[in-house]
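Lesson 9: reading folded outputs for more than one chain in a single document. The general rule is that every protein is listed as its sequence immediately followed by its structure tokens, and records are never interleaved. Here is the first one.
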Amino acid sequence: MKIHFSAIWAAMLTCVALSACSSDDDSDMPQAPATGTKTVTITAVDYNPAPGQFVNEMPEYVSGMTRQQIQQAALADIQRGRGVSLGGFGGYIVMELSEPIKHRPDGLDFKVLGNAFKGSAEPGVVEVSTDGTQWYALAGQNWDEAERNLTITYYQSAEEATPQQYIRWTTSDGQSGWMMRNPGFHTDHPYFPGWEDGISSITFTATKLPNNWFFDSSTENYVGEARLGYADSCPNNSAESWLNLANAVDAANRPVTVDNVRYIKVTTGVIDSNTVTGECSTEVMGIQVMAL
């Protein structure tokens, strides 16, 4: 199908990743909105991350916190621009906006702010809704190669787990593998959501995009190629990070007309993990639109 990308979006961004896929400091956090843009206030969230190295950090989990309290913490972190991590494939957040986003003729409808930088893209599938019930996905690059309605189950790590075999996962299409643990960072907490106390596994169903991470033997670094049309894939300040409601499709992958949205859902769209950069996990730090 035809995707309505602007001409300036024609080339896919690639670059060598020189550091881990996400940063522990605030250097990647979005600052004040760029000239001519504004940040949309998010009034409520439904936060359901998959396991990941930043889960229990973004937002911070304190022992004993309830699910309701972690929802409040996620909302507070997004409202102040720090954001949240969705963990591995299938983890998601639903955001309710204070005002609807309307489709613009130029297609520069909104950005989902993340902490992507060149060579370190963690694409999240974006869905939109006017009422929080009927959802439409925004079809981005390589969308026709995506595997829809893939179910993944993550299993609690064993005490004797190694960094290479930390959290086991299986999928509904018969695949299985391991979420690796980054041995140099995030070693003081588990990757499983801490507030999901007592569970042995956690399951999600989502759309899986083609993997975008690979090992570059010439530089001996891992590279995460950007996929246009997704969250946390292109840098916040780049033109390529704008999302277009004209790319909306229904569950049967048919184009639909969406004039305005009040709810946005973002889901980590890739299954990938290594012991250098950790798992591919989408981060969400807010919603930005044109001011006029």
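And here is the second record, again sequence then tokens.
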Amino acid sequence: MLTLLNNARIVISLQQVRIVFLVLCFLVLITIAASLNLSSEQMNIEVLKSLAIFLVGVFAATIANSTGAGGGIVFLPVFMSLGFSVTESLATSFAIQCFGMTSGSLSWMIHAHKEKSCFKTHWEQLYPILFIAVLGSCTGLLLAQAYFPKDALNIELLFSIFSLLVGLFILYRTLMNKGQYRKSNILNKKEIIGFMVVSLVGGAITALLSIGIGELLAIYLIWLGYRVNFAIAVAVCVTAMSVLAAVPYYIFQDPAINLSLLLFVAPGALIGGYFANRLTLYLGAYRVKIFISLWIILSACVYFFT
């Protein structure tokens, strides 16, 4: 009974945090709109042009938060196809994900504590694993931002290769290990070291591509035998913290974050993040893993054949 009450209190607290977060997002977007100083005529044109971009935000955040893949899996190719530079595409992708992935992470945390009273062992290692993953990811990301020469790299090619390898691996593991899960969710020493390495590498890749940490964490946890919902929840939460850590690097660069694009895509990302975990629970673990792999493979092929 005490556990039930504690979980109920945490759920209520998280729901309050989500309300505060949404209010802050609203204030930020209002401030951005005011700073752009658009006339009513320009605003009407922007709204018409950006309706499709808004829907991209909904779609990308839904994909990202229902699979654990970062929103950059959609945003980066879309923005670059629209003619934005690599830096602007990366910066804007990170900024939008701050809205969408944080929204999704709060939804997953609320779901985790709702289930914890009935499936305690399923979620008991959530916070220790999150701590290790966030520490490793943010360290790798910040080091990569500081020392990796992004201008000298072919981001499109790296994005394609990484996406293709990730998608094929997830598809293989899903087809070969349907319904097999580990009995204990506690990591041993070797798994902890592996988890730290994966997080560090994933963070570094994320700095370059705006994707990476979520995909690698989901793969590693599924490979270790964790349930898909747990793997996705961890991937979404760590991605949210990683993109928040990535944005300050771009704030004072010019050009970097495209505020006009952010203004219209971020609300869609908030909506997609809010509903994404419901989609995952509705579809079921096996279908979600198949969908993850096929979508990632498709996104990679778009670059290879265009």
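What the second record shows: The CA atoms of residues 158 and 207 lie 12 Å apart.
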